[in-house]
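Structure request: Iron-containing redox enzyme, Micromonospora polyrhachis.
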Amino acid sequence: MRTPSSRGPVSSALITALTGTPTPLPAGLAGTWDGTDPLSDDDLQLSLFICYELHYRGWSDVDDRWEWEPSLLALRAEAETRFECALRRLVPTPSPVEPVGIPQALARLVAEDSGPSLAAELHRHPDLERFREFVIHRSVYHLKEADPHSWGIPRLTGAAKVALLEIQFDEYGSGRPERMHSELFRDTMRWFGLRHDYGHYVDAVPAVTLATNNLMSLFGLHRRWRGALLGHLAAFEMTSSLPNRRYGDALRRLGAPTTATRFYDEHVVADAVHEQIAATDLCGSFATAEPDRAGDVLFGAACGLALDRAFATWVLDSWQAGDSSLRADHVTHPETSAITDAVPVG
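Returned structure:
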């Protein structure tokens, strides 16, 4: 994956610097973010995403030594501070909960979430172009599915560690590379005629999509946020089964073959099981072992739900206005003739 196009002065300076040998970045770059909303600031979210990606598969045109360059870490820390402050403004501090009550508190958070549903919209009104847009947004995460939450494995012990490994083993295909959820998603992208190489559509997605991804990396890369990481994963699993059933059904109405729906069908079954493991065995065990971190579990879950609401609102508002939900200069059309048997409905 090559570095993306810049979206402002900070990402421009960062990308330019990354093409050379690691040297200190210019001082004061982050000052250009003063007065902006970190959650919708394309320049901030892209800069943060670029920094985070150095800890995953990196950038093909960037020297890997940049990963630990002190000035880059300082810039990342400034972006994270602004991001975290925005999250705390968005999500109220959770009320104190006894560790034993964490599974029930997570269930209440999920039940009370009143955000708009992309799954319901695509199920009611299946549309090939809109579903393709949705797949492009989600490709930024699904092509590395499970990786952000895997940062939690070495930070845990005992029952919580075992529960996380059980979930992640399924996500990574239960020992079968072709069954990895990221590989199943590639099959969906192929049917839509989309490029399915890792990170290909980063340039096409807006700040809110990058923010949903950056949230996972923020929690995963900081040991102090291990509880929030687990809460985020629990909320993810607890809100997944029904939407994925709707996505799979919508694709079938559009004429998609089994290979294209398998990603969603797999999650209907897997996440119904993961929901119980994540809430009780993972988060419940963690809160019991580290009761002072119980509130972080709920904060992580609430942040995940809040940013998912913001993402769904962005997409649905764009569609209602008759616009693409992708960035205006990156509206994407099929790049192959993969769709041969689709019969659009609605």
